[in-house]
Write a structure and sequence with these properties.
The complex is a heterodimer of chains A (about 575) and B (about 550). By secondary structure, chain A is of the alpha/beta class. Chain A is built from 22 helices and ten strands. With about 550 residues, chain B is of the alpha+beta class. The chains are: A alpha/beta (about 575), B alpha+beta (about 550). Chain A: It is a peripheral membrane protein.
Amino acid sequence: IEHLILHHHISSVEKLSLTTSGCPLLIQCRNFRVVHFVVPRERDCHDLYSSLLRLLRPVSFDELYAFSYNPKQNDQQREEGWQLIDLSAEFERMGVPCDQWHWTDVNREYKVCDSYPRDLYVPVAASKPIIVGSSKFRSKGRFPALTYFYQEKKAAVCRCSQPLSGFSARCLEDEHMLQAISKANPNSRYIYVMDTRPKLNALANRAAGKGYENEDNYSNIRFQFVGIENIHVMRASLQKLLEVVGARALSVTDYLLGLESSGWLRHIKAIVDAAIFLSKAVTAEGASVLVHCSDGWDRTAQVCSLGALLMDPYYRTLKGFMVLIEKDWISFGHKFADRCDQLDGDPKEVSPIFTQFLDCVWQLSEQFPQAFQFSEWFLIQIHEHVHSCQFGNFLCNSQRQREELQLREKTYSLWSFLLSEQHNYENPLYSAALAERNPVLEPSTQPCHFKFWTNMYHQYDRTMHPRQSLLKHLLAVRESSCALEKTAHELEAVGARDLSVLLHVVPPTLMCGEGLPARSDGERTVEGSSATENSYAELQGPFGAKAEPHLVSLEFGVARMTC
Amino acid sequence: MEFAELIKTPRVDGVVLHRPFMPTVEGTLCLTGHHLILSSRQDNTEELWLLHSNIDYIEKRFVGSLGTIIVKCKDLRIIQLDIPGMEECLNIASSIEALSTLDSVSLMYPFFYRPMFEVVEDGWNMFLPEEAFKEIETLTDEWRLSSVNKDFGVCPTYPQLVAVPKAVDDDTLRKVATFRHGGRFPVLSYYHKKNGMVMMRAGQPLTGTNGRRCKEDEKLINATLRPGKRGYIIDTRAINVAQQAKARGGGFEQEASYPQWRRIHKAIERYNILQESLIKLVEACNDQSQSMDRWLSKLEASNWQTHVKEIVTTACLAAQCIDREGASVLVHGTEGTDSTLQVTSLAQIILDPCCRTMRGFQSLVEREWLQAGHPFQQRCAQSAYSNSKARLEAPVFLLFLDCVWQVLRQFPCSFQFNEHFLVLLFEHAYASQFGTFLGNNAAERLKLKLPQKTVSLWSWVNRPQEMERFLNPLYEPNNLVIWPSVAPQSLLLWEGVFLRWNRSSKCLDEAYDEMVHIIEYNKELQSKVNALRRQLAQLETGDGLLETP
């Protein structure tokens, strides 16, 4: 059995202590694959180990796979791939520009904010000096900019970073900026300012000259803390989670208590709770909301994108979801390079912020099985490629960096690749009509509705998958229906016209009813599977002994290899 | 006794009914001998018909003269009734309490229920032991049907007919019965067609502290082994529990006496431990105001999922011994009426594709639970809300259904029935208009004349118009042995039962309907295409020249 693992996927390599069968090498991947090699000779193992370590630490972007990946497309196809997602068209779809919101070129040289995109939308009433003044009062220059416009109520979702307010500092331009956002919405007298951090963290930031908005200085704002933890807490949480679920012979008690103490689902719920708050403020109250955290590129991205997903059914389509990620994550400067450890960098910057977002989306899709055009395979595939560095979309930390590296000319876009195999990622139960009737999702936030996403965190652990995939089955049935529709149509046409053509139109293999077509996808299911894989008990003794595998290491049912 | 004596106030107007995720209904509350009925007297509003026997527990509250009764049902639903007038409320409450805890089985609703449908196929005759044995007879001549228990004298909890090795005569069986708990001598539970291996079940051997032996018992179980073959004894108790049982006259098979058998101990809990587990689980599921962390630790503290894992694992082990090791298996715990049946029945689901069909599963429940003497009446007398000190109550059957659901979830295309059917069995085991789950064993059912006096659940459920709801649209017969994963990550909380009343099921129901639609549509297309082809073929051969295409 051969195994291909992208170097970029490997997050750690560990040499374990020598055993009788050889030297074990443990490789952990960012797509939650765990591979256990046993190399018979210790010297070979050491060589393998050190060369892996060298390969794992690229120092510049052009060493990444995306720059050598060539899917045999010509330049025009490549360019078309990149043009698939057009954010200015997306703002137009939302109804922007309009009388209250317009496009601004204030950041065209990336001078006001180098982690923001070039094209930004702001209230018409916010002049350039106000924007520039506001940006100087915001961490990393990330001034309040429009990210979602709820046309029905003219309510806006804006995002920014924390104000540099310290204990008492004020900034008139920033106050004006918020007022302009407020005035742009005729339906509400106030706006919400959501600080997505726990209050304690925000307070601590004040000592460093940062902090949060003082309600006395801003007219008509309603200030709200949400309490999502920072990147370090999230990193530790995922690490703990993976330790728990990676344990062998895991008991139910250790699993549930480990799941709890990892805090992972608590964090997921906090993000969903925040998104629901945002969505309710906008859709029910018709109020505009300004969202920020510290730098406004992690928690803010999570809450803004998930909130929009709740409000707008478009983002629950395949294409819309790509647009959403392009907009709230890629263009607004979520630091994918740092968070996903693309280059040899600071390990403290690595954090599963985007993974959490996908997890939240999955939780929603579990509650609303018909609301999403895509299935979990789509989410898992996106996750795969956020870390694979095979496509240019997620490279670097900002639009500016991406332009400097000319990614559009040198790499390919993931989205056209995913759309080309769209049928694999569709949710067969999706109902567009339902989305029209109930456009806004109102999920339950009861704790029991937040679940561990086995198919994500155990995607390579086939022993844990459902043995027959409902999703796969339904996709196949739907595909077969399409083929049958076509056949029926042809037969009707033939019957009406000329009988002699019959045998040429209908392939003989179809004569006895269409079989379900075989599919190729990432899902591996085992009809029946095997008893030995599951280790229900050790059947030792004279007649219960099983043959020892020959120089094969089977760890967690993941990998099997002889070296 | 007349029910009228228990009903002090048969009717109250202006009662308001509150149910989670449903609009409140105002109407007239009526009490009958077996039902609590709320009627809104409006055509389009749903009425409430609740069997008194479904009521597990009630709570009363008063605010001024407005009384509130909170009704907690055995199917885990909680409803609230606001009743104007303190006296009316107290009367209603005491009537419900009395009517929901009737002592006499013969006063239960099934004895009064008259079906509104014609019984085409009588469920009481559908799964007779002699019928079930006929199939085994075609495969092997090593087993026979014994009527040694004809008058229930040898084993009061066994049916009149049991399958035993042909080589063992009835006298031997009588002797073995004295050596096994409750007279439950080893009987055939399952015959594995593929390799002729068998699964048997029994009560614990009464070895006691001095290691009593019974040559006939050894002879009986050895008679099931092929020459040179060995078998496994799966004791569903932990070794220390089995040891302790010796002091009370019980015990387990000693290696010295049973050299051809290897004993494996698994720890499946029983009785009050399971009942408490259910109570804690339901408490956790109903707790509305909790943080993420408390939910998980409460779920853990209930231990429910641990019980599920233990049962599935043990059943898989039994199946593994039979199918993979090619060995016969004897399963027992203490009495052989609870954990034993969980293991033997679940193992058959894993091994035998027949048990995954609608009929086959009903037959399994009938054979391995009803006829095998699982005391339904005792175990299902109370559910999760009762605060009376439970003694005999235990959600043994519910746990089995949960385990089946786990396997069904992992093999969604391999079962002919769906989750709704499992939920239905749970409901009817606890409260029903049908007589199927009344009584504790075959002897009691015969005495109660259930087949003559009540309707069988199977008579109702197998009518095509009812059955449709319980059929799995994804079903494609799968002749393989199905090995489920028992990793804690693969065993989920059974939301269809435990969160059923705590969530709005609208989205999930609609999704299910859509799934059915996708599959139905595909079937329609297939028959359409086939019909078109036939037409064309006829046209081509000239036979159908006169027909219009």
